[in-house]
Amino acid sequence: MARLYTDDLNIGYGERLIVKNLNIVIPDKKITTIIGSNGCGKSTLLKAITRIISHQSGTVVLDGENISKENTKVLARKMAILPQTPESASGLTVGELVSYGRFPYQKGFGRLTKKDYEVIDWALEVTGTKDFKYRSVDALSGGQRQRVWIAMALAQETEMIFLDEPTTYLDMAHQLEVLELLQKLNQDQKRTIIMVLHDLNQAARFADYIIALKDGEIVKAGSCEEIITHDVLRKVFQIDAEIGRDPRTNKPMCLTYNLLKGDSYHEETILSDYPTTIASY
């Protein structure tokens, strides 16, 4: 049985329902990517699963327990989240920022222990940021700063890491740097990675499991072979995509696409309408 899943999850703001009757299973020790157009509920879903926001009905279950009833520090030892726009770290050194990841383990006056310092140094080492330990976070490049935030998440020593668009505002080289780091953490340390991505080809290249959302509902979930298809992309993004193969990974990739408009879109949508499917793990 999977460690993390949702049961008829409904999430909204006021009377507006964003995510509707969502049932998903997150594969353990895999990389899961959530894709979909702007405003479809990707970030909202991530926030609800990690209890940053509350949900209206349904449940999020982790290790057999409803997370809404879980102790905050206990939950923080199980899952870490890197939001789309992390709070400013102005004036902090890299080491100081990463040390915040040890909060779930602190007692009393919150002084760092020898164990805490060892974990902080390990997180800096594995993310390649150890040389920046005493530098200001403000002085780092975008890619370096993102790796430092990931180091802080790693310092929580959680088996699950959630990331909301971790490549936003980064150039192509830094995007690849961050995604390869996450892949390495998954492969070497068996961390379960759940992230929102906009780039379909990055999702196909790095994810083991993809959840495609539209208007707060799942269109399809499964492997990249099942999701990066003409029909699914037509349904989710309203595009007519040409699908090929990545010459380096042999995974499917979107080569080019046209927008579906007017009668053409409605015709295509009717033809591609099929039941929502969820792969079981």
Topology:
Blueprint: E1 4-13, E2 16-22, E3 25-26, E4 31-35, H1 42-49, E5 57-62, E6 65-66, H2 72-76, E7 79-82, H3 94-99, H4 114-126, H5 142-154, E8 160-164, H6 172-189, E9 192-196, H7 200-206, E10 209-214, E11 217-222, H8 224-227, H9 230-237, E12 239-245, E13 252-259, H10 262-271
Parallel strand pairs: 4-9, 4-10, 7-8, 8-9
Antiparallel strand pairs: 1-2, 1-3, 1-5, 5-6, 10-11, 12-13
Domain ABC transporter: 4-240
Membrane topology: Peripheral membrane protein
Pfam family, one: ABC_tran
Describe this structure in words.
Pfam families: ABC_tran (PF00005). Keywords: ATP-binding, Cell membrane, Ion transport, Iron, Iron transport, Membrane, Nucleotide-binding, Transport. The structure is a single chain. The chain has 281 residues and is of the alpha/beta class. The protein has ten helices and 13 strands. The strands form three sheets. The chain has a six-stranded mixed sheet, sandwiched between helices. Strands 1, 2, 3, 5 and 6 form a five-stranded antiparallel sheet that branches. It has a two-stranded antiparallel ribbon with strand order 12-13. The longest helix has 18 residues. It is globular. The C terminus is likely disordered.
